[in-house]
Structure prediction request, 750 residues.
Amino acid sequence: MLQYLIILLDDTSVSYCHYENTKTERRLISLDDLKTGIFFAMKQNLMIQFVYPDYELPEEYGQVIQSIDNHKIAPCSILSDETNVCVTCEWEKLPQEADTFSKEFVWVLRISKNNLFSNYEKLSLRIKAIKRLNLVITDVDTFREEDFSIYKKVLSHFQTVLKEQYSQDLYPQFNLLSDRILLDSMNNCNAGVENITLAPNGRFYICPAFYQENEMDSVGNLTIGPDITNRVLYRLDHAPLCRICDAYQCKRCVWLSRKTTLEVNTPSHEQCVVAHLERNAGRELLLELQQSENRFSGKSIEEIDYLDPFDIRKRERE
Amino acid sequence: MPAPAHVAAAAPAPAAEFVAVAVVVVIRAAPLAGRGLTCKTVSMANSTFKNITFIVTKDCQLACKYCYLVGKNTKEKMSWAVARQAIDYIIGHSEIFNEEAVVFDFIGGEPFLEIDLIDQICDYIKRSLFEKEHPWFNSYRFSFSTNGINYHEKTVQNFVQKNRTHLSVGITIDGTRAKHNLNRVYKSGKGSYADVVKNIPLWLKQFPDGATKVTISSPDIPYIKESVIHLYSLEIKEVNINCVFEDVWEEKDDSLFEEQLILLADEIIDREYYKEYKCSFFSENIGKPLDRRLQNQNWCGSGMMLAIDAAGNFYPCTRFAQYSLREKEARIVGNIREGINANRLRPFLTLDRCTQSPVECIDCEVAGGCAWCQGENYDAAGTPTIYQRATAICKMHKARVRANNYYWNKLFRKIEKEEWKANKKVEKCCNI
Ligand code: SF4
Ligand code: SF4
Prediction:
């Protein structure tokens, strides 16, 4: 069931996920479309997430936006009290010291694998200053076997940092590790099922990435409403690998899946292995916390012998 | 000629059964003598095998009306360089192609138009397998589906003689002259029956178990019974006959189809053709509900096969090459230079019946044997997905199930009566 409406306020609205926003020319959503989008969300009982560009919006837009309860996703260059999710592509921009202001919202760091591999030690020091960090690797599809080994090492380092924090009764959340510990079922992005995106052209898209990639890829407009052909394929129960998987923290990015395997319901090997390395690192952290700190006693994450659920299907077939 | 292949495969090829087809391979002694190997027969029954298809040409002498190849042309012919690179890649990567046996298929257009290239390819395959001491050297087969028009020609016959023990050839003949010429016509519009039928005796002499494929689309329905019986009269013992998967059916087609199948059933049973001849429309295993969990395999083998075209691109099967697709873009899963793109194959290898089927099919009481073609599913789908099953065949399958039930009920009763009679005779004798 739809629960969220993501409204891209401008063509240059910040990307907060795997996709790159390559659009550089401003195109603000029309005020009429913005109002109609909000009206639609109110009737459908949807929570709105506004995605901001890096410039200040005209005043009348602010008034319309304030007419409804919402979440604000914004680039860190226009950070304000109202921001809920603050996005940056430079790890150096993450706060160094905990302050009440930056503890109020979620930080999203979009980072390439090479940048992460080179800077993870310095970056990990910033976790302490943040309430929650969502780290998004922007080029998961380029991982090779050797990258998986490095990533394992990186996660192990984050594991140590988080453990230290937890020992001091500080609980910063870090999506790659703590989410799996906290979750008991899949918590994927669910684009096309739980959320849908309204773009500045007044049309609906599965998620912002589908709009960025191809404007022709729309799934409805403000007159007819969302109209998603083969909508079931975005659902977990129609994803043959994901439905047998327990990497609950995985985004299960349908855009990335389509890009790599040509099917929205089938993730790539790289997406799965990366998510399983995170899952397993989460498991190790949980075990350590249970042993040394006696915390999370009711939780358990099973030991598994695969990093890609495709291997389970392969074994079944053989 | 590409067999009118995207038809409801009456001889099922679901994943589980795909590996169980019996293929007998005879290793030729001559080139091996030097290494002390002797001529022996290797059975590929129960072994897993890879099906590799070379799309050697997109040209054909015919312009069959039901042909699914919408992009046939005279230009795209495979070059020797592409073929050789493909073979080097496949034979050099036995960690990817790790099946126990292999069937190399050659299709077109009409494959025998490129007999010289095919001959070169087959020689090179044999030599490479031998030199690399590849496990397939004991287990390979070359397979052809042809329109039969140039089957008698010297070049083709030389090839047949040379590779006889590793060869399967199927000639497509659609039935009576009228039925065949309805669809299988030259580009000029002239029917091809006469040119095909004259090669049938030669073919059957070389391949006594040769089977033919017959394709049924809406206008063919009235000819079904007479066509199958006609093929039997030509001594073709196995007729694989299927309805096309496309949405071509007219309103009353299912009743007409059922009527024809019942007439055919009567003929096969009354004249006792069933003792020696086969018609794939009638099968004991179809028409039952399917278990969601235990009978959840995909039907079609796409993704487990590999097709290669003139540009050196790989496809999950030929039906995903651009010349076979009406609406969608080709699904390329690699090429001879960069190899297989494993991610692009994943959706094919994780497909199951229920995930791609609508609820009606999952709950269907006669679902067993109701086939689909992944390529047609993709081509007909509302989005570019292989996960949306096309069900244009639905009413035809249901009609087939009704006729099939009739066939088996009638046949069992006949056999029962005969056995009873025979037992009576025995009883009488014993009582004397
Ligand atoms: S790890 Fe792979 S199978 Fe599991 S949810 Fe993520 S994308 Fe799906
Ligand atoms: S297509 Fe029709 S006959 Fe075939 S399984 Fe679906 S509902 Fe049953």
In short: The CA atoms of residues 196 and 322 of chain B lie 28 Å apart. Chain B touches chain A through 20 residues (CB under 8 Å). The two ends of chain B are 63 Å apart (CA to CA). The pocket of iron/sulfur cluster (ligand 1) is lined by residues A 241-242, 245, 247, 250, 252, 267, 271-272, 275-276, 309 (CB under 6 Å).
